[in-house]
Amino acid sequence: MGHILIVDDEKSISDLIVMNLTMVGHTSEQAFNGGEALDKLKISRFDLCLLDIMLPGKDGFELIDDFKSAGVPVIYLTAKNSLTDRVKGLNLGAEDYIIKPFETLELIARIDVVLRREGKNKNIFSNKNVTVDLNKHLVLKDNKAIDLTAQEYLLLETLILNQNLALTREQLLSTAWGYDYSGETRTVDIHIQRLRKKLEWDDIIKTVFKFGYRLEVPRT
Q1: Helix (H, G, I), strand (E, B), or coil: what is residue 120?
Q2: I need a surface site. Which of 28, 140, 148, 199 has the fewest CB within 10 A?
Q3: Contacts 24+ apart (CB under 8 A), 113-116
Q4: Helices 150-161, 186-199: inter-axial angle, 10-degree rounding
């Protein structure tokens, strides 16, 4: 998991991001203007920065060189949605450009992509006697490989990457099956039942009443 700096002058948005990052296992710090972001950069080491563009003091376009010099990858997270701004942000060296308002699952997925690319994400998930290697797509139970179908594995990976977040059946379908999947949400229930049985995770994959499912693990 990564240590992430959130630079956004809207405290409510920043606090919401902190909450969701904490839920899935990341740690974070907050800055609310350009000067505070630079101060944080001097005293802490970060694996990633979520950087707004419209900030008091130095704006996000001006700040990116400081983060690049420190070796910290940047994802712009901003309401500036013009093509010109997006192209400028990416040309300046941002890893990604996300427009507000955003979906939490999309933000977490894009963070995971950058951290994996930088080699700064933890790619081994363990709970009790089950270990999942997200790089090798390998699932071990009591040190023996578990035979999962490709779809069961994708569902498991989605739950792990969004651990402790309640996910609707529709969100699980769009993430684990793909947005063009046209099946009924009942298929999610069937695959959840199979994962629970194969991994003996009845007490870990929780049903969220009238909503969906959550992989519930201790937060470290």
Answers
A1: coil
A2: 140
A3: 114/48, 114/73, 114/75, 115/2, 115/47, 115/48
A4: 90
User: Among 199, 203, 204, 209, which residue's Cα sits nearest to residue 152?
Assistant: 199
Per residue in 67-124, pLDDT tens?
A: 999 999 999 999 999 999 999 999 999 999 999 999 999 999 999 999 988 777 668 8
Please, are residues 139 and 148 in contact by the beta-carbon 8 Å criterion? yes
CA distances from 130 to 26, 94, 142, 181 (A): 21, 36, 7, 29
In this structure, the strands spanning 3-7 and 27-31 are parallel
Beta-sheet strands, E only, within 17-58: 27-31, 48-51
How far apart are the C-alpha atoms of 193 and 155, rounded to whole Å?
A: 12
Q: How many CA atoms lie within 13 A of 147 on its CB side?
A: 0
For 101, other C-beta atoms within 10 Å of its C-beta total 7
The answer to whether the pTM exceeds 0.90 is no
Residues 6+ away with beta carbon under 8 Å from 83: none
Which residues make beta-bridge pairs with 145? 140
Question: How close are the terminal C-alpha atoms of the chain, in Å?
Answer: 10
> Is the bond leading into 101 cis (omega within 30 degrees of zero)?
yes
Q: Judge whether residue 12 has pLDDT over 80.
A: yes
3-state secondary structure at position 130? strand
Token representation of residue 181: 């999947």
